[in-house]
Amino acid sequence: MAGYLLSIAALLFSTFLMLVAGGLAGILIPLRAGLEGWTPTTIGWIGTTYALAFTAGCLIIPRLVRRVGHVRVFSVLLTLLSMSLLLHSLVTQPVAWMMFRAIAGFSLAGGYMIVESWLNERVTNDTRGMVFSIYMIVSMVGLLIGQYILPFGNPATQTLFIICALIYASALIPTALSNAQSPKPLTQVSLDLKGLYRRSPAAVVGSLIAGIIAGSWNFLAAIYGEQIGLSTLGIATMLAAAMIGGAIFQYPLGRASDLVDRRYVMVVAGIIGLVLSLAMVVIYPGPGWTIYLLMFLFGSVLYPIYSLNVAHANDSADASEFVEVSSGLLIVYGIGSMTGPQVAGRLMDAVGPSGLFITMAVCYIAYGAHALWRIQRRSISIVVDQKTEFQFHSPEKQHTPETLQFDPRSDTTPAQD
């Protein structure tokens, strides 16, 4: 087993470095934008262009990989990521940052896709769960470490941007020098969003709402922390607390969804998210242990809800449709991620920091209420052993489609929930 893990060690190390840089960039860019005096709405536009480019990358990059191969495209993408951070440090202007962040979104989509394609090629059914568990651990540790680099520099200067660019560039070295075999050419699959909705409305609508929540959080949480008076270390700790909460609670939620109708778990997640969001608005915690505790609890439904959607959609899919289902949900999730920063940013402009969690509260109401409505509308008993086993997917790293091609199908596909 040690020899097997050694064969993918270079790829995992590249992933770790890429996520360290991604964790730092994710907190550094909105925080610096806030220090520049840009409004949450403006910062939201930066998040929207990132999400738009990320979604576009899922559609375009597979075609590039088919033309020139995984390693070459991966090298180009990491170079673009490094360039995007250097450009941020050179030009401090909102429209320019939207374009620079779009480069990063496009490149990260491809980076995740290539890494996961590579891992899928190297694993067997007997080792897949172990390898992807290690992959998730490596990714989460990388993100956490990246966030905690922030207190060691001044966001108002160029230093942290340069450090982030250097880490992105260094992520290329392990994979470029590895003698591991590259994965096979990507397989073409179709994308049918209309058919996916007919099959699983709860999963599609849930993925859209999950995208709105994640987009709002990813691009405005650091601004929220700054506005309530947290230091850079405090902001990093706040974000880390939410991530740790998501890592701990994803298994109980996932296991519960394996034992009962997943839509009931969606309803419970919506209620928990609503209560915690309202608590953040009413209590309005400032610096101190309360904010970290609430963020830890909030993370319990912030990160796992997308995985509930994926698992629920795959319950009614054949094995040959898993990639298509995940691809379609990712596109819907990306659309939500484009919308979230705009809505939350405008509310923060209007009512202050609590606007972020007002947005979250409305989203969680919609998430739980829609799942409950689907249960009442179409009550179907699902035998537990017929379900797809729940698997955790980080919102930042959904399993990306190998190739997407729109392929409308007959309107007679029956809905499954």
From TrEMBL:
Record keyword Transmembrane present = yes
The residues that cross the membrane are 41-61, 73-91, 97-119, 131-150, 156-180, 201-224, 230-252, 264-283, 289-310, 322-344, 350-373
Domain named Major facilitator superfamily (MFS) profile is located at: 7-379
The protein's matches in PROSITE patterns, at most eight in alphabetical order, are given as:
MFS
- List UniProt keywords, sorted A-Z: Membrane, Transmembrane, Transmembrane helix
* Region span, Disordered: 393-417
**Could you cite one Gene Ontology molecular function of this protein?**
transmembrane transporter activity
Taxonomy of origin reads: Bacteria, Pseudomonadati, Pseudomonadota, Alphaproteobacteria, Hyphomicrobiales
| CDD domains reported in the protein's UniProt record | MFS_YcaD_like
Q: Which Gene3D superfamilies match?
A: MFS general substrate transporter like domains
- Matches recorded under Pfam families: MFS_1 (PF07690)
According to its record, what are the GO cellular component terms?
A: plasma membrane
Q: Which InterPro entries match?
A: MFS (IPR011701), MFS_dom (IPR020846), MFS_trans_sf (IPR036259), MFS_YcaD-like (IPR047200)
Task: State if Membrane is listed as a keyword.
Answer: yes
Entry protein name = MFS transporter
Native species of this protein?
Phyllobacterium phragmitis
